[in-house]
Structures are given as C-alpha cells and as structure tokens.
Amino acid sequence: MPPRSPGQQAMSARWMILPAVVMTLAMVIFPLGFAIYLSLGGNGTLPALGLGHYSRLMADPAFWSALRVTLVLFAVALVLQLVLGTALALALNRYNVVRGLVRTAILSPFMLPPVVVGMIAIVVLDPGLGAANWILESLGLPHFLWLASPRWSLLVVALIDTWQWTPFVALIVLGGLQALPARVYEAAEIDGAKGWSLFWHVTLPLLGPTLLTAAVLRSVDLLRFFDIIYITTQGGPGNATTTLNIQAYKLGFDFMDVGYASSVMIVLALIVLGSVVFFASLRKKVSW
Asked: What DSSP character marks residue 226?
C-alpha cells in the first residue's frame, strides 16, 4: 500500500477529531447559546428579544443580595483554602515520615461526593444531637445554631467547603514545593536567609504560579457553588446563603421563570470567566 500524502494525513486527522468537536458543540456551545436566547426572552416571556430580563435583574434586590453572598463566600473560602492548604503542604514537605502516612488520608475529603459531605455536615452540626454542640457543651459553652444562624451560616458553609477542598490545594502546593530548584535555597541560606524570612522572600514568590493555578481551579467551583448549600440550608435561613446559582435554580424550577433564571446564570458565567481570566493573567506575570 503506497504511503499517504500529507494532505491525506491532515484530512484523516480532521475526521478523527470530528467526534470531539461535535461533542463540544453539543455539550457546551449549544446549552450556552440556548441560555443566552432564553435570557433575551426567547421562551415567550417578553414581547420580543431584548434586554428586559437584564433590566429587571439590575433593579432586583434579591439579585444583588445573591451576588453579595456569592462573592463573600468565594473570597472567604478561597483565602482559607489557599492559606491552610499552603500550611498543610509545608508541613507534609518538611516531615517526610508524616507525609507518607498522611498523604493518602488527606485525599479522602475532596474525593467524597458533595452529597456525602453535606449529609455529614447536617449530622455533625445538628443543634440538638450533633457532635459539634456536644463538644461545646462538654467545654461548658452554649449551643450554637450552626446552619440555622442568619449571621453565621454563610461562614459555616465556607468552613465546610474549606474542610473538603483544603487537601486538594495542599496537594497542588506540595507538588509545587517539590519542584522548586534547590540551588535557590542554597544561595538564600548562604546569604543568611532562614525561617520565616526564607519562606516570605524565597518560597512564597516561587510558589506564586502554583498558588494561582490552585486559585483558578477553586474559583470556578466556588463561584458556582451549589451542592452543599442546597443539601444543608437550601439558601436559608432567609437568603443568608442564597448564591446566584441557588437563586437561578429557585427561579427556574420553583417559579418556572426560566428566562429570568437564564439571565442570572449568564451573569454568573461572565463572573466565572472574568475570575479565570484575571487569575490566568496574574499567573503569567508571576511565572519564573
């Protein structure tokens, strides 16, 4: 059989990637385009295609409340996970004996389905029978309404997500630590750097790209946070934990206002895209 020409090889390659292109169009492009169509009144909720849903959105206090909750949850959980994940990675990298024993164990939280994590949180934080209040009672402290407190429920949800995903961040940072060049530390130690000074002026700057990679991965999940909130609080008490994702779900499935719900999701998609672009561009600036 004669060898194929470069043109024939290129044509074969195009046919081989065609299923992936079709799947991408079917699973990503079409749903996004249809959501934009619905948000513009394409389901008949508006007299004609236009920005009516977006005008309503700008004047809706519930939308601004959900946006505030989304951004606060995003900021608090992301900072906690990056700080605690870095601390855990430093500990695992320093103590080799512990690292081998613990590395597998710390995988378990983020390998659990969100449904399981949410059910664990409900059981542990139950005001009457939960282990958390039992510990407080044993210490002589009053009971606490963990998930039922309008003031603190959002922080509790952020802590639940932090418990689940801090090990994930730690593994990313641990990989970054083990890839750092040893010669930089040797030069820094010759110059007299050690302890906190070594970490602040050498390790942390070198970990910048790794930390920003973790930030990109976690920001996408945190901004579209849904599962654990829906299982534990369903956006309550009141609207204390109602994120944009939860609000869009209620609008679309509880009130059947699909067009307006789609406009909320388009705004959320733009926020997610903006955060990814921001962290990705920042990562390029700190790359070494």
From this structure: -
In three-state secondary structure terms, 12 is helix
The residue length of the chain stands at 288
- End-to-end alpha-carbon separation of the chain, Å? 50
| C-alpha–C-alpha distance, residues 191 and 283, integer Å | 28
Q: Is residue 157 part of a domain?
A: yes
- Residue 198: CATH number of its domain: 1.10.3720.10
The DSSP result for 41-97, as a single string, is TTTTTSSSSSSHHHHHHHT-HHHHHHHHHHHHHHHHHHHHHHHHHHHHHHHHHH-HH
Helices (H), the chain: 6-24, 30-39, 52-58, 61-94, 96-105, 108-111, 114-124, 131-138, 153-178, 182-190, 195-198, 204-206, 208-223, 227-232, 244-249, 258-286
**pLDDT tens digits along 170-203:** 989 998 998 888 888 778 777 777 778 888 888 8
pTM score, two decimals?
A: 0.88
CA-to-CA dists, residue 76 to 32, 83, 88, 288, angstroms? 29, 11, 18, 28
Q: Distance between CA 147 and CA 127 in Å, rounded?
A: 9
Domain count, the chain: 1
